[in-house]
Amino acid sequence: IGKYYDAEGKPTQDLLEVERRILEERAAEQERRKLPDCNVKFKPEAGAEVWCSTNSGGVARDWAGVPRMIYATAGNRKCVCVQEEVSKSGGTAYIKYKRCEQDPERGEVCHQKKAKISAQD
Asked: Model-level pTM?
């Protein structure tokens, strides 16, 4: 008898909700490891730039990847780091930014003059 189990020892709705949230968070963590966020640097006079490193998004890995835009939940867009070979075979799932260049230290770096990063700029 309590918050998580009823008098018969069966799970309550509260326990089921906690378990659902745990599963959602585990799935989100797996997604973050597969598609970590890009590094972003913004200066009002220069705009934004995005790039990937072996630790971008706070996810340590042995590949840096390339910055690509994806549509996240509710139609929101975000920049993620994608392994280069996946990016090339990903069809329209990964949108390449315009105005990108190769940097000897950071790999592919994409620039935008607006505060909001988009694939159209």
From this structure: 0.68
